[in-house]
Design goal:
- This protein is an alpha+beta fold.
- The protein has 2 domains: 27-59; 61-104.
- The protein is built from 2 helices and 2 strands, in the order αββα.
- It has helices spanning 27-56, 83-100; strands at 69-74, 77-82.
- The chain has a two-stranded antiparallel ribbon.
- Strand 1 and strand 2 form a beta hairpin.
């Protein structure tokens, strides 16, 4: 290799544009922490809503007692499968989430 020609640095040769530049120390970390913070807040809100619904569920007369909810009891063993309630909750959540994420 002739002395006048230098080796390309980081795999780039002369004439090529560098597309990505590594952020300086500490610049990219702030963006990652902010994104993680938003995820933690969203998870907290979701868990709070689920907790409130669990507290209010026994007071609602139709939850768990719909015609499509199955309850079997035999010889001291009971089995409960809330099929109709699960379908209704799924439909309601699908509508709410589609309305919530429609703007994005």
């Amino acid at each position: 290799m002739p002395k006048s020609r230098k080796r390309p640095r980081f795999g780039f040769s002369a004439g090529q544009d560098i597309i990505y530049r590594r952020p300086a120390m500490g610049q990219g970390v702030d963006m990652e922490i902010q994104g993680l913070g938003k995820i933690v807040i969203f998870a907290g809100v979701v868990l709070t809503v689920i907790g409130v619904l669990m507290l209010l569920a026994p007071k609602l007369p139709f939850v768990g007692k719909l015609p499509g909810d199955f309850y079997f009891k035999k010889d001291g063993v009971s089995f409960y499968f809330p099929l109709a309630t699960s379908i209704i909750v799924s439909i309601v959540l699908s509508i709410l989430l589609s309305l919530f994420f429609r703007g994005k």
